[in-house]
Write a structure and sequence with these properties.
This protein is α/β, with parallel strands linked by helices. 25% of the residues lie in helices and 17% in strands. The chain is built from 5 helices and 11 strands; from the N terminus they run E-E-E-E-E-E-H-E-E-E-E-H-E-H-H-H. The strands form 3 sheets. A 6-stranded mixed β-sheet has the order 1-9-11-8-4-7, with helices on one face. Strands 3-2-10 form a 3-stranded antiparallel β-sheet. The longest helix is centred in the C-terminal third of the chain and has 21 residues.
Length: 280
């Protein structure tokens, strides 16, 4: 089959050679990227007024084929690996990987107006690239808005650990059927050695997943020292000030209890403390 060369907006976020990346002083929007709208069935510019959003997510089973776009020819030799083939340290079962990814998404949701709408179990029937665009995804489509998957080095170059495809800005140079069908896809290279390194809680898997999700959410690389979007400069696990600033700028503040609710919580906590003191 004749191969077709196409410009795909893949963010090779954790390439080994980072010196070619252009960094800014603060958090950055991803160039030519849009984001999910407040109803998760529309997209919008990230440069306007901040608006909340929500997304579901899923893990693509191993041995799932791919197409360039819905109805297109199946791509020869492009088949997913099982997510457990990463053999990430401390992650010994599918449920471990699912839990790790849930925690990654919750980190972004906890600090901004992003809502984790939950996990969608995939059956392998929906091909990679098999849904027209990210707003057509969700439980009814059998796939999440964000789809996590694994490929070996026959698909992902050996100098890349993971990559993501962001939502293309309508009318931009990257706005094409292939990119729209892959928007929200996060890919891990299954045969990379880094997954088995670090601490026993899947440190590098979580950290890199957090970075890639940031691209899907509309963030580019930056040079903020404590930022997970710093392209490998940040060695902590969690979001830094730059990441939080960007998330709030695009998606708004996280929901907090109403003052009356907080007052009740305070009274309840004081009552509990008094009861404990009496028992002491």
């Amino acid at each position: 089959m004749k191969r077709v060369k196409m410009k795909v907006i893949t963010i090779c976020a954790m390439a080994v050679m980072l010196t070619s990346l252009a960094y800014a002083d603060e958090w950055e929007h991803q160039n030519m990227a849009w984001v999910l709208g407040p109803d998760s069935t529309s997209i919008r510019s990230p440069y306007g007024e901040s608006q909340s959003t929500g997304f579901s997510w899923s893990i693509v089973p191993g041995n799932t084929s791919a197409v360039y776009y819905p109805g297109g020819n199946v791509i020869s030799d492009r088949v997913t690996q099982d997510i457990m083939d990463l053999t990430a340290v401390g992650l010994d079962s599918f449920e471990d990987y699912r839990s790790a990814l849930e925690s990654v998404l919750d980190v972004w949701a906890d600090i901004s107006g992003i809502q984790n709408l939950g996990y969608v179990e995939e059956t392998g029937d929906v091909l990679v690239g098999g849904v027209e665009d990210i707003i057509s995804r969700g439980p009814s489509a059998g796939v999440g808005h964000i789809r996590f998957m694994a490929y070996d080095s026959s698909v992902i170059p050996t100098n890349v650990l993971a990559s993501a495809t962001y939502i293309p800005e309508p009318g931009s140079a990257t706005d094409m059927a292939t990119n729209r069908a892959r928007a929200g896809d996060v890919r891990f290279r299954s045969d990379a050695n880094i997954w088995s390194q670090g601490s026993g809680d899947g440190f590098y898997f979580r950290k890199i997943a957090m970075h890639e999700v940031g691209h899907v959410l509309g963030f580019g690389h930056n040079s903020v020292s404590d930022s997970v979007m710093g392209g490998g400069l940040y060695y902590g696990l969690g979001l830094g000030e730059g990441d939080i600033e960007g998330a709030v700028a695009i998606y708004g503040m996280a929901d907090v209890p109403e003052p009356a609710t907080m007052a009740l919580l305070g009274i309840g906590g004081l009552s509990l403390l008094c009861r404990r003191q009496k028992k002491a």
